[in-house]
Amino acid sequence: MTKLLGGRYELMEKIGGGGMATVYKARDTLLQRVVAVKILRNQFVSDPEFVRRFRREAQNAASLSHPNIVAIYDVGEDHDDHYIVMEYVAGRTLKDIIKEHAPLPVSQALAIAAQIGRALEHAHRHRIIHRDIKPHNILITADGRAKVTDFGIARAATTSTLTHSGTIMGSVHYISPEQANGEPAGEKSDIYALGVVLYEMLTGQVPFDGPTPLAVVMKHVQEIPVPVRQLNPAVPEDVERVVMRCLRKPVDERYPSAEALVRDLEAALKGLPVSELGEDLDEPTLVIPGSPPPPGKKRRALAPWAVWTIVAAVVLAAVGLAVWRVVVWFNVPDVTVPAVTGMNVMQAQETLHQAGLESIIVGNPYSDQPAGTVLSQDPPNGTVVKQNFTVQLVISKGPQMVAVPNVVGQPEAQAELTLANAGFAVSVQDQFSDQWPAGTVISQDPSGGKLENGQTVTIVVSKGAPSLVMPDFGGLSLADARAQMASMGLVEGTVIPQPSTAPAQTVLSTDPAPGTPVSAGQRVNFVISSGPPASQHSDTVQYTVPASAPAGVDVKIDLYVDGARIGTVYWSTQNPGDVVTTPCFSWEGGSAYVEIMLGGNVVTKQALNGAGCR
Q: Distances in Å between the alpha carbon of 88 and those of 34, 72, 74, 79?
């Protein structure tokens, strides 16, 4: 796929889709970064009111900036394509993780729910309601971070129309009772949906299911969910209390805010008590004589003796429960902590869960280990602890990526200091330049972007204008040219004989040509006279570099006539498998052969028949 959307976003591959839109991985050609592009499906584009609300809600959501919210970068249209450009998150949906691993470890479920709660807290503070919180809209990165996506899109859908082509908009398994009744959604509707998500993470199933969407909606309005601990006895009572409070039918009986919910989630994660609401979901209201009846309920007066009987029963039950908890505590089986250092965080949490232990992430530093790798655990492996003990994990954030500063044009010392202060090693190369003053950085590699902290940046520093100019060796003997060339620090390259009326061994031409700037160590190739073309022979040589040869090996071919070395007819750097062909060369005299060298060592000799160049 090579479609360019909006003249800027190059679509690379399809990575997802739903009832409203298709999602593509794309490259922002302006900022040179990978993004996700969500394109509305055609049936919605035909509704101008929906498109207008879609753009407005997406633009509102773009104002959100939070580590647990997928950022929106751009909103636009290209012909009939209406799209949103978002942060690209390399990870999996929470729904996929639930399908494969549910019920999740309690600590993992609470940590994910707390991150979703923080995202909602931030959005609600900006007066933005999500309206469609569900595991499909939660992305989990390799290091365990939750990121909520699709803020505002549900509002565009439900505000425009409740149904589209007979299909109920939204996800009925996560819909709040008030939304099911056609009432406006508010902050506590998001809290209800998050309660459903947490319920599903802890039990592996949603609170309500049915044969039709309408049946599920009616259960949200009328029925009470099965308590979490009835489906998963490993869930602590306080955690169950948090879930069931989120799922209260009356809006005012849920958490007053996402912030309050997050406080209880974090308390439960640390094993601390959570806040109390009052009556349980499935218990009738008890009215003490003399107290006003609750709204909508009739007074049910009890005799004084009945009240005291109930109070005594409650006290005895509390004492019995306390004794039971003490007995259970001292009878908890021992567990040996397994080794999870070096594992991926998901694998580590699953390993600890299988061993009967909980886990919590207490650190997320940069390191040279891949993102999501467990760097350390506390207590260490082999430690004997009680079952359900919480193991603390430190998870790698991956190598720290640092922006490479542009040092082109800076003096060498300043450039090295700038790069070193940014956390990079520096490699320096020198190059002649008649455009840059000596000691100035001409170029750098890489020239921008980001690198891992500690990686090497190569800078090329000007040596100033070349101080050497290629002399004119024409007419000199090859021996004299060699002597003069050696005094300048130049190196002999190929020497090609050619028939000429000039005396044998006379220099006819050079490469580089006379007057060209040269530098010490540079190779100079010669064409020399082989004398009059009386008994003239010519030939070319082909040679294949062996596969066993090292990469970048010097291939040198010398010409011998009647046992005497005439010169070098080929000299270049090649790689294994390369086929080299010499230029056409000539000689006069008797038998001739070439000597082929790899890396300065003679590997073969090849006789020449002088039959002419092919």
A: 6, 10, 13, 24
**Whether this model's pTM surpasses 0.70:** no
Distance (Å, rounded) from C-alpha 171 to C-alpha 189?
Answer: 13
Residue 398 pLDDT grade (very low, low, confident, very high; cuts 50, 70, 90): confident
Distance CA 171, CA 358 (A): 31
d(CA 293, CA 306): 18
Strand partners, 510: 526
Q: Which amino acid is at 257?
A: S
Q: What is the bridge-based pairing of β-strands 579-581 and 564-574?
A: unpaired
Residue 197 CA to residue 614 CA, distance in Å, equals 78
Give the containing element (helix H, strand E) for 356.
Answer: none
DSSP string, 270-329: TTPPPPP-SS-TTSPPP--TTSPPPTT-------HHHHHHHHHHHHHHHHHHHHHHHHHH
CA-CA-CA-CA dihedral for 208, 210, 213, 216, to nearest 10:
-30
Q: Give the distance from CA 240 to its chain's centroid.
A: 35
Tell me the three state secondary structure of residue 412. helix
In 98-188, beta strands by DSSP E: 138-141, 146-148, 163-164, 167-168
For the segment 412-452, what is each residue's pLDDT rounded down to a tens digit? Answer: 999 999 998 888 999 999 888 878 888 999 999 998 888 88
As a residue count, the chain comes to 614
How far apart, in whole angstroms, are the C-alpha atoms of residue 447 and residue 566? Answer: 47
Of 74, 78, 132, 282, which one is the catalytic site residue? Answer: 132
Whether 142 and 343 have beta carbons less than 8 Å apart is answered as no
pLDDT at 153: 57
Q: Which two tokens stand for residue 223?
A: 């029925």
d(CA 427, CA 424): 10
Distance between CA atoms of residues 256 and 188, nearest Å: 7
**CA 274, CA 240: separation in Å to the nearest integer?**
10
523 vs 556: CA distance, rounded Å: 13
What residues pair up with 92 in beta bridges, in sequence order? 140
pLDDT score, position 346: 84
More confident residue, 516 or 200: 200
Check: CB of residue 469 under 8 Å from CB of residue 516.
yes
282 is catalytic: no
Do the Cβ atoms of 444 and 408 come closer than 8 Å? yes
Position 373 pLDDT exceeds 70: yes
Domains and CATH numbers, the chain: 4-87 (3.30.200.20), 91-269 (1.10.510.10), 334-395 (3.30.10.20), 401-462 (3.30.10.20), 468-608 (3.30.10.20)
| 575-590 pLDDT, tens digit each | 999 999 999 988 877 7
Computed over its alpha carbons, how large is the radius of gyration of the chain?
39
Q: Are 205 and 230 in contact (CB under 8 A)?
A: no
